[in-house]
């Protein structure tokens, strides 16, 4: 029986500090919380995201989901050809394909990462690819480059991440970031689309930004007639969210460095102890993002739910994987899809359960550990010792080695 537990509270700073409070106070005192054009708060967060990703444009939204809707609309997805994606993502990314008038076309992840495998995509079936950098592990973006369809990145787990020397959010025709509170950069709620294509930027803007902003910024002759009355989804980011996220972005590099140090320390401890566990690796010229770090368990996990429960009971900082969307009623019952998205009438084919072996294996063999973003050497030592005890007790209680 494992008696070793994590007793040190999860090390962290308050989610919002004095700088966020000052920014919010100053904004309220300004008397202007709703920027219908590209006002100062919105300009600051958009410019900061363009700088972070090295893109020429960034467009703020009131959620990450809305930014995905905007991006897929902008690249021109169709009801006849789906959006290729893996099921290893948040449900909003899946539903954004429906929002934009298309549908998700599920494809398996790679054997060695939680991310969509481009080799499984049939480009003649899809009008776009949506690649999530799941759990902060950047997708192998160069492998998508040969596909003749636009690639949108879902960067919601990977703020500040870099793949092979180039920022996440700049590889695809558009990158989409969530600023929801659980994410590495929070505005409370919010989303940002990054792109270096002015056409994508303008088309995404026509979906939910104010006529005042459209008037200021639309130049594309096809879009200019939409200035006064575009699609009006009302996707603008509230100024409050924008100023909070702007402050959060300033501390991101420091927090990422601390997380790296903590992960390196933990990795060293589990290697020294010879534990059958390793973080999903990234190459040297790649910087991971932070939203729970995936570790592969190198012995067969026959009962992932009990293993997760044992980790939790031992106080380990585990984050649950998302539900298996492939088996959710929304994905398996066509009448539900048709009720919410009438363009799918008579068209929805529920995904086959057995078509995603790498995804199923990842779900069974992975634990997600939250890595603190403040210096935490003692905590990491307790986590390593507790992982050792938990793996040992599960091994002896019937998990078979392979
Ligand atoms: C959080 C998240 C979203 C949605 O973002 P919201 O801001 O909550 O709308 C989309 N995709 C992924 C992968 C996410 O984690």
UniProtKB/TrEMBL annotation:
Top-rank lineage group of the source organism: Bacteria
Family to which this protein belongs: Belongs to the DegT/DnrJ/EryC1 family.
The protein's required cofactors: pyridoxal 5'-phosphate
Molecular function in Gene Ontology: pyridoxal phosphate binding; transaminase activity
Catalytic site: 183
Positions of post-translational N6-(pyridoxal phosphate)lysine modification: 183
Pfam family, one: DegT_DnrJ_EryC1
Keyword vocabulary terms for this entry: Pyridoxal phosphate
Organism encoding this protein: Sinosporangium album
Designated name of the protein: dTDP-4-amino-4,6-dideoxygalactose transaminase
Gene3D superfamilies hit by this protein: Aspartate Aminotransferase, domain 1 (3.90.1150.10), Type I PLP-dependent aspartate aminotransferase-like (Major domain) (3.40.640.10)
GO biological process entries: polysaccharide biosynthetic process
